[in-house]
Design brief:
Length: 252
């Protein structure tokens, strides 16, 4: 909007006078409501300024929107008056529209393929865990069969299962082992930890807690940190050997 244009200046002056008149009416209304002169004058100024801003903004919008609309309408009218020259009917060649390709039906959505991949991965992981637990139970039975009763072996196997599944290890009674040293029990704990670390990602502190709970009588006087430090202690003769090279074929 060109504020130096005399027509625009005249519009603003006329609008300002109308706004001032409206603001003056509101001033007298507020005086009638009990406002003092200062408050009424303040209302007059606020209403005048707000009204003037809206009026100028309205003029800006009108001058930006209306002329392009008239110009566009005029162009449409001019285009309708112009009759383009056309060739004879015989010279007009029919246009051949390209055939639209039919949409491919029965296309498998990508999201379904991803679900299949996830389901397959989860099934493989479950199978690995089941095979790993089966070999660990078998290892436990073969290891402790010469040194304790069937009842104690069942307790140890259940504790191994709970440990594998990330559950809290609870035993009905402390397991008594004959013929094995504390170092042998440490080696057994480390072997179990080594088997499960690929699927559990557990820490050696966890297996130390496991040993302390399952073999409470044998390890009653040994601190947890001591158990952790001596898991791989291998100086001397032990009946349970460390299986540092153990590798389950299913996890290879």
């Amino acid at each position: 909007m060109n504020y130096k244009d005399p027509e625009n200046i005249l519009l603003i002056i006329c609008g300002s006078m109308g706004i001032a008149a409206s603001a003056l009416i509101f001033r007298y209304l507020f005086i009638g409501l009990g406002f003092d002169d200062f408050g009424a004058n303040l209302v007059f100024i606020i209403i005048f300024i707000i009204g003037l801003v809206f009026f100028i903004s309205y003029l800006e919008v009108i001058q930006k929107v209306i002329p392009p609309l008239f110009k566009r309408q005029q162009q449409v009218i001019e285009n309708q008056d112009i009759i383009p020259e056309s060739d004879t009917v015989e010279d007009i060649e029919p246009t051949i529209e390209p055939e639209l390709e039919e949409p491919i039906e029965n296309e498998t959505p990508l999201i379904n393929e991803l679900d299949v991949i996830r389901e397959k991965h989860n099934l493989e992981e479950q199978q690995r865990k089941e095979q790993l637990l089966e070999t660990a139970i078998q290892y436990t039975q073969e290891t402790f069969a010469p040194y304790t009763s069937d009842e104690n072996i069942a307790i140890i196997c259940q504790a191994v299962t709970d440990y594998m599944n990330g559950m809290k290890v609870i035993v009905p009674k402390s397991v008594t082992i004959k013929g094995l040293s504390n170092g042998d029990l440490f080696h057994f704990g480390w072997n179990i930890w080594n088997r499960f670390q690929l699927v559990r990602g557990n820490k050696q502190e966890d297996i130390a807690v496991f040993l302390k709970i399952v073999f409470k009588n044998s390890l009653a006087d040994i601190e947890m940190q001591t158990i952790k430090k001596k898991l791989t202690f291998n100086q001397g003769k032990y009946k349970i050997k460390l299986e540092k090279n153990y590798k389950l074929s299913a996890l290879a």
